Amino acid sequence: LKAEVDLACSDLNVVNDLIGNLPNMTGRLFCKLNGSGSLDNPEASASVSMSDAVIYGEEIPSANFDLSIDDGVARLDSGFIESKRGRIALAVSLDVRTLDYTGSLHSDGFVFQAPEVFGTTTLLLSGTVGLDLRGSGNVHAPRCTGEILVNDFAYDTLQFGDYQLRVELDDDSLQLSFMSEDEDLIFDGGAVLGGFFPRPGSLCAAFHL
Fold it and tell me: How many angstroms separate the CA atoms of 160 and 158, rounded?
């Protein structure tokens, strides 16, 4: 089996006509796909790009994704989404047989500026959110570590400043550490999830002022 496919869509609005109950989408899409091997052991790679897109009301000038599958492992080798809020970079691999995975998500800064409209809800929220998350393990026993940095956080006229959130997930154990920039507020917490994200089996927390 061997195939090469080039797909171009000059207006993503056609998706709204094919699939109902979706938010309005506009923009351009290009996809180049190469495949070989057998149905039992396929090998494929694809390059997907979008430009001048609007999805869920968010303007996305550009986005690119390099995808592949080889020897039962599906990969998003590199991907980024560039919007007016900022840039998000991500990479993921998944062994479809064992469900072992690795992944990363990073953004130097994702900007929110009041008023923010989410569907029918308007929030007077502003600030910048940075992400650096890394994960590995198995889908049924996930592991993840990372940091979320919030700068110049404000709601309406209330100024909250800068904060750092550290997250560590190991199987069913979740640890959180939340700290203000000048360390006048520190929160440490943990939870035993007892499975694949049900309600916590146990919870502990401590505040330091």
Answer: 6
